[in-house]
Transposase
Amino acid sequence: MRRKWDARKKAKIVLEGLMGGCVNDLCRSHDLRPGQYYKWRGQFLEQCHQIFEKRPNLSSESELIAENEELKKLVGELTLELTSGKSSR
């Protein structure tokens, strides 16, 4: 039966190995095949630089969504104004 490993547990195991622990002992204690450990380690090392990359600010994203909604409303009002010939504001 396959086990599901969460990302935190995988990272912890990989870091234990990178800090000088014996990989065979580490795998034995976690009931893990060494091949699986090396696969996780490869993924970890390929992607670890991403932690230092700048991520988009979530508050600015919500601000953009609100601005987008406001602009859609304004476009709708202007469209009604143009088609009816009256000012709706």
